[in-house]
Amino acid sequence: MTIAPQLLAALDPPREVFFGFAIALVIALALTPVIGSLARRIGAVDEPGERRLNTLPIPRLGGLALFFAIFIPSLTLLNLTKPQRAILLGAAVATAVGAIDDLRGLVWWQKLSGQVLAASVTAGLGVYIDRFTFPVVGIQALPEWLGIAVTVLWIVAIMNMINFLDGLDGLAAGVCAISAFTFCLIALSLDRVQPAILSAIVLGAALGFLRHNYYPARIFMGDSGALLLGFVLAAISVQGLLKTAAAVALAFPLFVLALPILDTSFVVARRLKHGKPIYEADRSHLHHRFLERGFTQRQAVVTMYCWCATLAGAALATRFMPPHEHGRWELWPTLAAAAIGLVVIGVSAYVVYVLEIVKVARPGSRRSARQREREQHDA
Q1: pLDDT-wise least confident of 93-102, 223-232, 355-364
Q2: Which domain holds residue 237?
Q3: pLDDT at res. 191
Q4: What is the mean pLDDT of residues 51-66?
Q5: CA-CA distances (angstroms) from residue 22 to 7, 201, 212?
Q6: How far apart are CA 124 and CA 122, in angstroms?
Q7: Alpha carbon distance 141, 164 (integer Å)
Q8: Which of 12, 123, 242, 271 is the most exposed place for a label (fewest CB within 10 A)?
């Protein structure tokens, strides 16, 4: 087995990783209530409504607390090279766009334009995908213009996916924390120290904010927080994971961010099927379907945490327990990877069944439905 060096690198990180996590955690814990009070004073509050789940007015703008919790330790602990400055600048733009939307509201094309601007600033300053590494064909270089375009598309997509996911108390913050933790371990194993530090900072900020955002939430992150977290996670995946020689580098962010990717894909497909604009808000997200099936908010959030954790575990297994190394199969890594794969399939199948994402024909149910129709008609 060849996993020991990779595990050692991930489990013996530089002290900046711990410092970044701790500083971000403390700032988010302390600053979030202050931002909540400010939001109430300036009227940045989510009022209960038809599409809202909160029954009381809840302040938003929590993304400002997340921003400072990420920005301050980043300025202190990161080597502020051009790529790191590009990510922080793009994060500031993303947060500003989200904050404006939280305060006064933006139409969909204005918000999208702001997202593209944030992603373009970062990609234009050098943080873009310049190559992909595939298991069979090897390293494939991309022209600069194509790499920048793909990166902008990827970052904007993840920003919107995290924004779509932010529908239950603590859901987006928890999923982002799981993703950041996983990215940190993988980046360390790939000797990508700067992305690992930034991932640890995001983890601390998300957990500190989650203390105030978990059900029943006392503050929402708003678009300012969702766009910020989506942007930073997407940028980390580009700078720390995709731009490597690892043969399965493409699988890492796809596994880790699978939950928001699947949620958005499902929602977009449903809206297109029914002829609705993809930017029009509704209650067709996975978390809404959990509530429709009788789950409480906490039960729905914990279930989605578990689902996200199993998918992240698959990403870690892909990195730390490769079953086929150096042209030969390893017994124990193969068995471990198979066991993790079965858990992922089992949890995913459970979610698909509970939410009826794929409808299974049930003759008894059909007969009952027809019988109810006849009874209603006779009545």
Answers
A1: 355-364
A2: 4-378
A3: 86
A4: 85
A5: 22, 8, 17
A6: 5
A7: 32
A8: 12
